Automatic annotation (TrEMBL):
<dbReference type="InterPro" id="IPR004046">
    <property type="entry name" value="GST_C"/>
</dbReference>
<dbReference type="InterPro" id="IPR050213">
    <property type="entry name" value="GST_superfamily"/>
</dbReference>
<dbReference type="InterPro" id="IPR004045">
    <property type="entry name" value="Glutathione_S-Trfase_N"/>
</dbReference>
<dbReference type="InterPro" id="IPR040079">
    <property type="entry name" value="Glutathione_S-Trfase"/>
</dbReference>
<dbReference type="InterPro" id="IPR036249">
    <property type="entry name" value="Thioredoxin-like_sf"/>
</dbReference>
<dbReference type="GO" id="GO:0004364">
    <property type="term" value="F:glutathione transferase activity"/>
</dbReference>
<feature type="domain" description="GST C-terminal">
    <location>
        <begin position="73"/>
        <end position="205"/>
    </location>
</feature>
<protein>
    <recommendedName>
        <fullName>Glutathione S-transferase</fullName>
    </recommendedName>
</protein>
<dbReference type="GO" id="GO:0006749">
    <property type="term" value="P:glutathione metabolic process"/>
</dbReference>
<feature type="domain" description="GST N-terminal">
    <location>
        <begin position="1"/>
        <end position="71"/>
    </location>
</feature>
<dbReference type="InterPro" id="IPR010987">
    <property type="entry name" value="Glutathione-S-Trfase_C-like"/>
</dbReference>
<dbReference type="InterPro" id="IPR036282">
    <property type="entry name" value="Glutathione-S-Trfase_C_sf"/>
</dbReference>
<dbReference type="Pfam" id="PF14497">
    <property type="entry name" value="GST_C_3"/>
</dbReference>
Length: 210
């Protein structure tokens, strides 16, 4: 399954029937090309009208706009941005443990993530989900990039590729569990996932298993 940062953009465009070219690089290719072509030296990025756009929030916002997934209300649009920022921050928190090379220290960090940090963040997300009170979506009454981001972020966290993090780590957060099931049952999302990931795995660039 794919990492969430680029996938939120791909899915937004697909849901909005916006054609795009999907270019994916291997880990070796990423290392070789990040400096020369990637804005700020990092991936993912997208190119529109000859200009490159980096950072998850900017890309997700653009894709949502062109796909017709941005709420009309400015306050609701800001709520979507907030959820994207939260997903990015949680990813950065987890990534600290991925950079740790000492196995024992890594597992200590993962234990803290499992027992304290992740439950705290899951609680934050669940509170936002419940606060909307609208058909089980994070913002408004239909899918936004906020929903896609959380769905794929939790999919990565529970993929089994983060050693020490169980695949059922958010099982006690029932609103999040229901939300994940709701996204996975969406016919358009199922079409995308079936056509692209029937026999694939997460990118090694976001896994402990490089």
């Amino acid at each position: 399954m794919p990492f969430w940062r680029a996938e939120v953009c791909r899915l937004a465009l697909f849901l909005g029937d916006v054609p795009f070219e999907d270019i994916r690089l291997s880990y070796r290719e990423l290392l070789a090309t990040a400096g020369p072509i990637a804005p700020f030296g990092q991936f993912p990025f997208m190119e529109v009208d000859g200009r490159r756009i980096a950072y998850t929030g900017a890309m997700a916002r653009y894709c949502a706009d062109v796909a017709g997934l941005t709420p009309e209300s400015k306050s609701e649009a800001a709520q979507v941005d907030m959820i994207i920022e939260a997903c990015s921050e949680l990813t950065n928190v987890i990534s600290v443990s991925m950079r740790e090379e000492d196995r024992e220290k890594k597992m200590e960090m993962r234990s803290i993530l499992r027992e304290a940090t992740l439950p705290k963040w899951f609680s934050y997300l669940e509170l936002q989900l419940k606060a909307n009170k609208s058909n089980g979506f994070f913002v408004g009454d239909k899918i936004t990039v906020a929903d896609i981001a959380v769905w794929r972020l939790l999919g990565w966290i529970t993929s089994g590729l983060l050693d020490g993090i169980p695949t059922n780590v958010y099982k006690n957060f029932h609103a999040l569990t229901d939300h994940q099931e709701r996204l996975e049952s969406d016919s358009k999302i199922r079409e995308w996932m079936t056509n692209h990931y029937a026999a694939s795995s997460y990118s090694p660039t976001v896994s402990d298993k490089r």
